[in-house]
Design a protein that fits this description.
Elements: E1 8-10, H1 11-18, H2 22-30, E2 36-38, E3 44-47, H3 48-60, H4 93-103, H5 112-125, E4 129-135, E5 139-146, E6 152-154, H6 160-163, E7 170-172, H7 185-188, E8 195-202, E9 208-216, H8 224-244
Antiparallel strand pairs: 1-3, 2-3, 4-5, 4-9, 5-6, 7-8, 8-9
Domain GAF: 109-246
Keywords: DNA-binding
Pfam families: GAF (PF01590), HTH_17 (PF12728)
Length: 246
């Protein structure tokens, strides 16, 4: 029996882990090579342990799986955990990166579905900057941004790396007074962040793939109604991300 910590994967996430096309993963699932079940909505789900078992079998011997052609699915070290990363990382960083890869969002064009949410986040909190930030192993990439010129930064600079370690709001009232961030290039240089508040964005298997956050150049804190508004907007963004991985 799988343990409670045996991560549940979508077909797309399993395909990314196996390095094959989604259609190939679907075929293996249908013929039983990867045990699966259907959700009430009719979507196939598999266990991480089952995918890992198939990977081991492929490495040990020649099998039908070996007929998959390299390059069916783009693979990248950005979706592979880094040994001793220069930033705080979740214990299940590998599963988190799989969920991010399954979303298919990294390096895609801007979309109104996300841009509306960052605009609303900026408006309801009266913050000059708002971001939907997605965290790969190497960088934080902004799917949507308000008031920030850069489209990405190194992961090591990301306040969001701290935010995804918890379930609720992560808030830094004054970055210059916080030893974790006072020497951060995003604090000492543009965009001169002094305030940060963000909630984790959840992807497949409720893995935190990034954040919806607001920033300011002045120290401050969010009022309760602003916290609630940011939480609700984050929930909407998470629902959209999960749909992309189905």
């Amino acid at each position: 029996m799988p343990s409670d910590e045996d991560t549940v994967l979508t077909t797309r996430a399993a395909a990314a882990m196996l390095g094959v096309a989604v259609s190939t993963a679907q075929q293996w699932i249908e013929n039983g090579a990867i045990p699966s079940w259907k959700t009430p909505g009719g979507h196939r789900r598999v266990r991480l342990s089952a995918v890992q078992r198939l990977i081991g079998e492929r490495a040990a011997s020649t099998s039908p799986a070996a007929t998959a052609q390299p390059g069916d699915v783009a693979s990248s070290k950005e979706f592979m955990p880094i040994d001793r990363p220069p930033y705080p990382a979740p214990r299940d960083e590998a599963a988190r990166l799989l969920a991010l890869d399954a979303s298919g969002l990294v390096d895609t064009p801007a979309e109104p579905a996300f841009d509306r949410l960052t605009w609303l986040a900026s408006q309801v909190t009266e913050a000059p900057m708002a971001l939907i930030s997605l965290l790969t192993a190497e960088r934080q990439w902004f799917k949507s941004r308000i008031g920030v010129d850069a489209s990405e930064t190194p992961r090591a600079w990301a306040f969001c790396s701290h935010a995804i370690l918890q379930q609720g709001l992560f808030m830094v009232e004054d970055a210059l007074a916080d030893p974790r961030f006072r020497d951060n290039p995003l604090v000492t240089g543009a965009p001169h962040i002094r305030f940060y508040a963000g909630f984790p964005l959840l992807g497949a298997a409720d893995q935190p793939v990034g954040t919806l956050c607001v920033l300011d150049t002045e120290p401050r804190k969010l009022r309760e109604r602003e916290v609630r508004a940011l939480r609700e907007l984050t929930a909407l963004a998470s629902e959209e991300i999960k749909r992309r991985a189905e």
